[in-house]
């Protein structure tokens, strides 16, 4: 399956338990202006919601794309000088070693934060918006916050969300907030969505 030949002209953030968050996203094969315009729209949604990363499934588009700005974490809202915007297409992770734990949140899970275990050192290989493939080595314990962001976002492309990584005890602490999101979704759509069954 390949990503759509055209992308929606208006996109907005979706929240848990929207079923689009649970789909495996499709490979991108066409690197054209439509793709680059869509990436621009993803940055707009990410900025609007003050995120450090956003994956296409979070705007209900099934394509293996995410955008990041890991430097946003360090800046005041009006300070755009601290910024490092990147586009990641068809990404994969290789040569993983070690484990690192970090407190994560997700724009699609407002108000929920929990410590998640991720790879410590790894390479990420991805294409840019013109199709050029690049490899980057990251080391979380050495200070690469970007290493956390890309692992979180890559999960989204496989229909995995950060609460899937939580222990039963951690999940218990999130139950009430998850329940509120489920209730909101049901009220807005009339359907239960894809709720966690653990
Ligand atoms: Co997320």
Overall number of structural domains: 1
Gyration radius over CA: 16 Å
CATH domain class name: Alpha Beta
CATH superfamily membership: Peptide deformylase
Q: Helical element count?
A: 3
- Strand fraction equals 15-25%
Report the principal-axis shape. Answer: globular
Structural class: alpha+beta
Can you tell me the CATH topology? Peptide Deformylase
Helix content: 25-40%
Strand order of the largest sheet: 1-2-3-4-5
The low-confidence parts are none
Describe, in plain words, how this protein is organized in 3D.
The protein has 198 residues and is of the alpha+beta class. It has a single domain, classed as Peptide Deformylase (Alpha-Beta Complex). 26% of the residues lie in helices and 25% in strands. It is built from three helices and five strands; from the N terminus they run αβββββαα. The protein has a five-stranded antiparallel beta sheet with strand order 1-2-3-4-5, with helices on both faces. The two termini are 29 Å apart. It binds cobalt (II) ion. Cobalt (II) ion binds at residues 106-108, 152, 156.
